[in-house]
Every structure is written in C-alpha cells, then in structure tokens.
Amino acid sequence: MNVKDYDQNQCLMFPPHLSEFLSDDHPAVIISDIVDTMDLGCLYRKLSTEGNQAYHPKMMFKILAYAYTNGIFSSRKIHKALHESVAFIFLAAWQKPDFRTISDFRKNNLSEFIKLFNQLVDICNRLGMMSLGHLSIDGSKFKANAADRATYNKKRVADAINDLLEKAEQTDHDEDQRYGADKTGDQIPDEIRRKKSRLQKLKQIKEQLGQSRKEKINATDPDAAFMKTTNGIKTSYNAQITVDEAHQVIVASGVTNDPSDTSQLLPMVKQTEEAVGRIDKLSADSGYSSGDNLQALSDRGIDAHIPDANYQASQRGKQDSPGQGFFTRADFRRDELNDCFICPAGENLNFVRLQKVKNKPPLRLYRCTAYKDCPLKKRCTKARSGRSITLNIHDTQFKAMRTKLESPHGKRLYAKRKFIVEPVFGHIKETIGFKKFSLRGLEKVIGEFALVCMAHNLRKIINALKNGALQGAT
C-alpha cells in the first residue's frame, strides 16, 4: 500500500521534551510562564519540614490554575487529566498527585489564593491591561454546595424533631417486642441508629438557628442563604467583583451570604482601592444605591454613577404612580421652603409623620387633605385617604445623582457599565462553566472564588497575548 509507516510499538531514539508537543502560545505554556514570575512564598511557608516530601506547590498551583481556566473544578477530573492531557502532563512534569492530594491543596491554601489573585491583578496592570479610568461593580448569585431541601426554619426543624422522636419511640417499642428489652444498642439495626444520629443533627441545626438569628439555615452549609436567582429561590452565595473598563480584568473580588448588594458597595470600593489605588469613575446598578453610599462616595471624591431604584424603574417605563393614566411623582413639585409638595391642581401635600422602613432610615410621609372636592382626583389617586408621597432623607443626594445620569456625559458613561462588568459574570458562568461552589462555608468559598477570578484574568491575558494587544507593554 502507498501509505506511510504506522507502528504503535515504535520507539524514539531520543525522548522528546514535553514542551515540543505544545506551541509557545499554548495556554498551558503561558500560564506556566506567568506562575514562574509570581512570588509563591505564601505557599512555600506552609510546607512541613518533617515527614514525606510534598508535591511542589508551584506545580500544584499551575495544574489547579490551568484546570479552573478550562472549566475543570473536580479534583477527580483533574487527576484523570494528569494521565490523559499533554498540557496537564507538561505542567505536572509527569507527576500524578491523586485527587485527594489535589483537593487538600486547594482546601488548605484558600487564603493564599486571595494573595495570589492580588498578584495577578498587579501583573495585568503592569502588562497595560488596566486603564483604571472607569471601574464597575456588580454582584451575582452562585449556587452553594448544598441541597435546597436541607434548609430548615424553626417550624420545620421542630416538626422534624417531633416526628423523629415519635418514630423513635414507636421503633423502640417494636424492637422490644421483636428482640427483647434486654438487647444492647449495638444490636439495633443500622436504620434505627441512623434515625438517632439524624435527631442529633437536627438538634444541632436548631441550636445553630438560634445562635445565628437567621430565619432559615441549611443543614449542609449553614453559612449559605436562600437567595433569589434567575432559576428561582436557591441556597446560594452572593459573589461581588470590580471590573476595569480596558480589558474587563477583575481587580477585586469577594463573596457574602447577604443577598443584598447595598451593603457590599463600600467594602468593595475599599478593597479595590487597596489593590489599584484611588478610583476615579465608578458605576453600579440600582441594587447598590442608598443615600449613605452616595454620600460616602462623594466624600471619597469618587465620580459615581449609580441610579436609585425609582429612577431606574422610570427609565424602563415603570412609572411611579398609582396606575396607568395617573399623575406620576414627577408631576408633584417639591417646595423645600415650606416642606411640602404641590400637586398639579395647586394643592399642598403636607408632612404628616415619619414612616418606618425595616433596616433603612425612616421616610418622610406627605399627604393631601383637599382631595375630596378636587376636580383632578380621578387622575391622582384611588386611596380613600388621598394621595401620599414619601421622601427619603437622602433625597438631595438622589436628585444630584439623577441630574448627573440625565446629562449626555452621564448617559454615555453609565451605558458602558453593561459592557464592562455584566459580560464578566457571563464569561465565568458560561465560558469557564463555574456556576456552583465546590466547597462549603463562607471563608472557603471566598478563596475558591478568588481562584475562579484568577482563571478569568488568566484567560484575558492569554487572549490579549494571542491578539497582539499587549505589544509594547511593560
């Protein structure tokens, strides 16, 4: 046959070097080169001077970083890749740590990953990938490594305990009849012992629920919380990132079990400034808006563009009014001198009282008293007590922000936000494939998310190098 020789048993006279199987711009080669430039002292300092020799932390970190960059999060799948993938074999230099060793290395170095993430941010900056002119903050919910059905409130845990106690009592009675009352506990079937251990677990959950002051707690991961996601209410964590405009590099990351984004803004700003210095322009969606936040950003000299919920609703066509065809809030003129609002009919809405709002500053409530004979009542309100308007104590800050957002410059700058930060979460979830935490507990998921953000930034560096976007960078 007119074909080239084919012999799977043929040997090479001189064994090839692993790097010969990979091009110079292969992601594994680039990641290896990047890690070689990093200070891994935080990993080396944890090595024991006694016992068996450990796998080299540099090698372990390289395979873990490459795995996350390629959407491989399972330690078992990483172990398998060390036997099958040329890229993994190259990074590990033929070494094959088992899945437990890989898992333990990840679990034992979570705080170190945060430090290494900060180093990688500095590398991105030195490569010229960050402009630091416009930064954007956003949050997204990620599923916790916990079953939703394992979430308990006080009523459910009490009902479950009572149910198990009743079943245990009935089981004990049945076992006495079947085996005799003098048998030892070791002779009780495994099913019965499992019920008793579950009872102990439920009592622990009840104690944790009381100590945490939460309404609900998950038995698998007590730190996780029920949060509203695109897939419904799930046991989740709220991941936070700050992203730079130039190359969508993540410059700061964090995770919280608080579903609200409002209280995350200032901690993220602080973390961002510690990483890259003073922030010039910052954008975020309405979930981060509060009077206190706007005032704090103003005090820091940050040019922020953050709409409040009412303004954002009005931009989406959801008018702040009792219904379609009714006067909107914008139709009522504010008279600050007399502390009232003036309606389209010329009547005053005077201050009535402070209205309490859970976990927020009270609102000032204004109400109309001339509504009974008003010719415009049908266009104003359906309420029997007349039209009312509430005023936030930070209304001045909100007004100033709305004026800024309405300006041509403000509109252009805020419009960039959805192209800066929103695609990053899409990249993490869809391209990298990270949608659920592998570890449990808030401290651990913070470290794991830092590893995910490193994977995102590594991919950005790889793409920039391949596209020639970093030519001339120092």
Secondary structure layout:
Layout: H1 27-36, H2 41-44, H3 57-69, H4 75-84, H5 86-92, H6 99-108, H7 110-126, E1 134-143, E2 151-153, H8 154-179, H9 190-212, E3 216-218, E4 225-229, E5 232-244, E6 250-256, H10 265-276, E7 281-283, H11 291-299, E8 303-305, H12 309-315, E9 333-335, E10 340-342, E11 348-357, E12 360-368, E13 388-391, H13 395-406, H14 408-415, H15 417-420, H16 422-432, H17 442-466
Parallel strand pairs: 1-7, 7-8
Antiparallel strand pairs: 1-5, 2-3, 4-5, 5-6, 9-10, 10-11, 11-12, 12-13
Helix pairs in contact: 1-3, 3-17, 4-5, 4-6, 7-17, 8-9, 16-17
Order of helices and strands: HHHHHHHEEHHEEEEHEHEHEEEEEHHHHH
Question: Tell me, what is the CATH class of the largest domain?
Answer: Alpha Beta
Strand content: 15-25%
Main β-sheet, in a few words? Answer: 6 strands, mixed
Distance between the termini: 56 Å
**CATH architecture designation of the largest domain:** 2-Layer Sandwich
Question: In CATH terms, what is the fold-level topology of the largest domain?
Answer: Nucleotidyltransferase, domain 5
Summed up, the helix count is 17
Helix content: 40-55%
What form results from the Cα inertia axes?
elongated
As a whole number of angstroms, the C-alpha radius of gyration is 30 Å
Total separate domains: 4
Mean pLDDT: 85
Q: Could you give me the name of the CATH homologous superfamily of the largest domain? A: Ribonuclease H-like superfamily/Ribonuclease H
Q: Using DSSP, what is the number of strands?
A: 13
Q: Which structural class is indicated by helix and strand composition?
A: alpha+beta
- Uncertain segments are 184-189
